[in-house]
Design brief:
Elements (H helix, E strand, L loop, with lengths): L2 H11 L4 H8 L3 H9 L6 H11 L3 H4 L4 H52 L2 E10 L2 E10 L5 E6 L1 H7 L7 H14 L3 E4 L3 E2 L3
Antiparallel strand pairs: 1-2, 1-4, 1-5, 2-3
Length: 196
């Protein structure tokens, strides 16, 4: 609807003649007629006066579809906000679940690894060489012999290079062989399950 038609509609709705409206706005009756016929349009000052008189906004008077623009902008903003909220939710879920999944995987890995390596065992070897007594202890996995911890007299470690052994079984044999080859004796304790 053009502004002229809108002026005519509002004028009639308010029960005003063209002459009465012209008087209130401060223009000639012919000006109102030209507006309503669409021959001319009110200037900004006259449009403001019409807007005040009819108690409508300038946008409504000029049929400016600002409401549709605002609705569309609001709708786009709401969609964007919704998308951002979904992304935040996904991020929060990931931040919360990732450590839990990581812990579970670590537990599973540890259990699988322990199952493949067997029980954790402990043993020691006590050797006498040149009238001196030395000992060395091992904490190892039964199936693989992989050493978890080892320690004892530094002399034994240095002369037998025990720290280079593949596993606890090889390390024990290295110590025993070295000491026996050099006139000493060794006693190995029976390996038993380690309990923390």
């Amino acid at each position: 609807m053009e502004i002229g038609n809108k002026i005519m509609e509002l004028r009639k709705k308010n029960g005003l003649s063209q002459e009465e409206l012209a008087e209130k706005i401060g223009v000639a009756r012919q000006t109102i007629s030209k507006w309503e016929l669409g021959e001319t349009s009110p200037d900004l000052k006259q449009s403001k006066e019409l807007s005040k008189l009819f108690k409508v906004s300038l946008d409504e008077l000029t049929n400016n579809d600002i409401k549709e623009v605002l609705v569309e902008k609001t709708s786009n903003t709401e969609r964007l906000a919704g998308l951002i909220l979904k992304l935040i939710k996904v991020a929060v879920v990931l931040v919360i679940t990732f450590p839990i999944v990581l812990i579970i995987l670590c537990i599973i890995y540890k259990n699988v690894r322990t199952a493949n390596q067997g029980r954790l065992m402990e043993t020691s070897i006590i050797c006498t060489l040149h009238d001196e007594t030395y000992s060395y202890e091992f904490l190892f996995y039964e199936t693989t012999g992989q050493i978890k911890e080892a320690g004892g007299d530094g002399y034994l470690a240095n002369i037998t290079d025990v720290e280079q052994a593949r596993d606890a079984y090889q390390a024990l044999d290295k110590i025993d062989a070295y000491v026996k080859n050099n006139g000493g004796t060794c006693t190995k304790s029976e390996a038993k399950e380690y309990h923390e």
